[in-house]
C-alpha cells in the first residue's frame, strides 16, 4: 500500500472516535426527551444508522466524480463538526416540540414512535448523512490502481472502527461523567475540526504529488517506445453487483440480529445493565476493526473471489456456534471470574470482557474481514471505488436496521435466542 494510506487511516481513526462520542451523547440527551424505553432508543439508533447509510449512498456517487476526494473528505469532516455543534440547540427544540405534542400519552404508541423518528431525524440526519460519505471519500483518495484487492479500504475501515471503540468507551466511562453531554459534544466537534484541517493540508500535498507524478509520466511516455498492452484478465467483478449488495445487506442483518441474541444470552450471566450492552458493542466493534485490518495482510495482487466470501460465511457461522457448544461451561467460567469483582468496577469489567470476548469476538473478526472483501468483489483498484463503498455501506446498514427491528420486535419474541 502507498504511504498515504496510513496518514488517511489516522484521520479515519479520530473520525470514528468522534462519531461514537456523538452517538452516545445524542442517545443520552434524547432519552431525556423521549424516555429510556426500548422503542425510544431503537428510534434514535435507527435514525443514526439510517443517516449513515443514506449518506454513503448519496455521497458515494459524488465522491466518484470528485477530482480531489481528500479535499471533499476534509469538507465533509468540517460539515460534521458544524452540524454536530448545533445539535444541543436542536435537541432543545425537539424537547419543546415533543412536549407540545403531548408525548406518547397523547399520541399513542404509533404516533409517539412516529414523532420520535421525525424529531430524531431533524437533529441527527444532517451530521450522520455527512458521516456516511467520509469512508467513500477517504478510500477513493487512498487507493491506487495497483491495489487490486482494495486493501487500503480495509485499512481505513479497520482504523475507523477501532476509533469508534475508543469513542464509545471514552464517552461512556469518562467524558460524559466529567464534562457533561453538551461539552462532550463540543469536544467531539473540536476534534472533527482538527481532522478537517489536517485533511485539507494533506489534500494539497497529495494533489501536488500527483501533479508531479503525472508530469513525470508524460515525459516518460514521450521518450519510451510504445508497448503492447497485455490482454485484461478478469477486471470485472467476481459476482454480479446486485448479488454482492444483497450479500452485504444479509451480512448486516445477521450481525445485528446476533448482537441482540448475544445480549439476551449474556444478560443472565453479566446482568442486563447498560454496561452489558455497551461492552458487547465495544467488543463487537473491536473485532470488526481487527478483522478489517486482518484483510490488509492479503497480497496486493490478490483479487477477491466468490469462494473467499463463501469461506468467510462458513467461518462466521462456525464462530457463532462457539458459545452454544460451550454450554454450561460459559456459566461456570463466569462464576469463577466473578471473584475478580472484589477489586471493584475495573475487576468486574475485566471479567465481563473475557466472557463477552469468547461469545462475540470470533464472529466479529470474521465480519470485519468480510466487509472489505465484499467491496473488493464489486471491482478492482480505484475505478468506481467511491460508488462501490457507498453502495456496500448503504446496503449493509439497511440490512443492519432490518435485523435490529426484526430481531427485537419479531424473531426473538417468537423464536427465542436459541
Characterise this structure.
The protein is mainly α and 418 residues long. The chain is built from 15 helices and no strands.
Structural features:
15 helices, 83% helix, 418 residues, globular, mainly alpha
**Mean pLDDT level:** 85
Shape: globular
Strand content: under 5%
Poorly predicted regions are 226-235
SS-derived structural category: mainly alpha
**What is the gyration radius calculated from CA atoms?**
22 Å
Per-chain topology:
Elements: H1 4-34, H2 38-65, H3 69-85, H4 87-101, H5 103-132, H6 134-142, H7 151-179, H8 181-223, H9 241-270, H10 274-295, H11 306-320, H12 322-326, H13 328-337, H14 345-377, H15 385-415
Helix pairs in contact: 1-2, 1-4, 1-5, 1-6, 1-7, 1-8, 2-5, 2-6, 2-15, 3-5, 3-6, 3-8, 4-5, 6-7, 6-15, 7-8, 7-10, 7-14, 9-10, 9-14, 9-15, 10-14, 11-14, 13-14
What is the gist of this entry?
With 418 residues, the chain is mainly α. It is built from 15 helices and no strands. The protein starts with a helix and ends with a helix.
